[in-house]
Amino acid sequence: MDWGEAISRSGYVKKVGKGNYMTMLTKVQIWSSFLLIILVAGMLCACRSPAPEVANEGELLTYHLEIDLLGAKHEASVDSQGRLKTNVELSSADGAISLSIDADTILLDKDGEPLQLIQAAIDPTLPLPPEDAYIVGAVYDLTPHGANFNPSIMLTLSYDPDQLPQGMGESDVYIACYEDSQWDMVRYKQVDTENHRVATRIDHFAKYAVLAPKPSPKPPPKPDLTSMSLEQALSSGKPTLADFGCATCAPCIAMKPVLEELAVEYKDKLNVVIADVFEHRDLANQYGIMLIPTQIFFDSSGNEVTRHIGPWPKEEIIAQLQKMEID
C-alpha cells in the first residue's frame, strides 16, 4: 500500500483521480469563501435605500393625513412619497383660517417623511409686532414646524376691519411669517376687501398673522424761500444767503433742495432767500447778476461777504458759514 492509499484510508485525503487529491481542509476553505460572499452581498443589499412600499397592483401605500384647523377636522390621503391624493379645501368653524392644497402636492415633514398631521392653533403668547406694522387679530401657529410643501399651498386669514388703524386702507394689509424671533412679509397676497380676507402662498409651516403697515410720518413742510423779501432779510439782524435764479433754470432747480435744507438746519441763525431775476429785475441789476444761479452771502449788517456763480455744493456752503462763524 502506497503512501497515498494509507492517508486516504485514514480519512484525511480522498483519492479523486490518478495522482490528484483534494483535502477536506480545502473543501472547507472553498465553502467558507462562498458563504462569506453571500454574507457580504446580503449586507450590501441591506444598506441600499428600501424601495417604496407598494400595495396590490403596484400602487404606493397610502397614509392618512389629519388636518385640524382650530378644531375643524378633515382627513385626506397621501402616498408613501407624500403626494396628496385629492384636492383639499378646509376652513375653521369661524372662517378665521383656511387652507387650500392641490392634489399631487408633496407634503413632507422635517425628516422627509410623508406628512400625517397638519394643525393650526391660536398662539397664546402674542409676539411683538415689527416696528413698522401692527398685528391685526390673532397669530396662528401652523405645525409641525419644518414641514414643507411642493408646490406651495394657499393660506387665507380673515381680519376685522374695525381693528385697522384709522385711515388705513384694507388693501394695505398683508400676511407675515414669524420665525426665529423676526417677522418676514410674504410677498404674494390677494386681499378680498368685501369679505375681509387676505390670502398668500406658503411653502413651510411657522407662525402667521395679518399685519397692517404703520402710516409713514408726513415729512415736514418745506420752507417757502420766496416769502421773505431780500430787503426784509438784510434788515433782520441775521446773516443772509440770497440765491438769484429763475424757475426754469435747471441748475437753479437743482440748488433749491440744498437751500431748503440749509433754511431748516440754520433756522435761527441764517436767512435763506430765493430771488427770481425775472420777477426782481431791479435786484438783479442792483447786485450785478450776470449769470444764474448766483449766490451771495451777506453779514448781519447787510453787507456782502462773498458770492458764488453756478451750483454750489452744500458742504462748500457750510464751510463758508463756518468761516463766518455760523455753526
Compact overview of the structure:
This protein has 327 residues and is α+β, with helices and mostly antiparallel strands. The chain is 21% helix and 35% strand. It has 3 domains: 45 residues; 153 residues, Sandwich (Chondroitinase Ac, Chain A, domain 3), CATH 2.60.220; 94 residues, Glutaredoxin (3-Layer(aba) Sandwich).
Question: Helix and strand succession?
Answer: HEEHEEEEEEEEEEEEEHEHEHEEH
Overall helicity: 10-25%
β-sheet strand percentage: 35-45%
Q: What is the end-to-end distance?
A: 130 Å
Strand arrangement within the widest β-sheet reads 4-3-8-9-15-11-12
The assigned CATH architecture of the largest domain is: Sandwich
Q: Rg, please?
A: 43 Å
DSSP, total strands: 19
Q: Name the CATH class of the largest domain.
A: Mainly Beta
Q: Would you write up a description of this structure?
A:
The longest helix has 24 residues, at 24-47. This protein has helices at residues 3-9, 24-47, 230-234, 250-265, 281-286, 314-323; strands spanning 13-17, 20-23, 62-69, 72-79, 88-91, 97-101, 106-108, 117-122, 133-143, 148-158, 174-179, 182-185, 190-192, 197-204, 207-213, 240-245, 271-276, 294-298, 304-309. The protein contains six helices and 19 strands. It is rod-shaped. It has three domains: 3-47; 61-213, Chondroitinase Ac, Chain A, domain 3 (Sandwich), CATH 2.60.220; 230-323, 3-Layer(aba) Sandwich (Glutaredoxin), CATH 3.40.30.10. The termini are far apart. Helices cover 21% and strands 35% of the residues. The protein is of the alpha+beta class. Strand 3 and strand 4 form a beta hairpin.
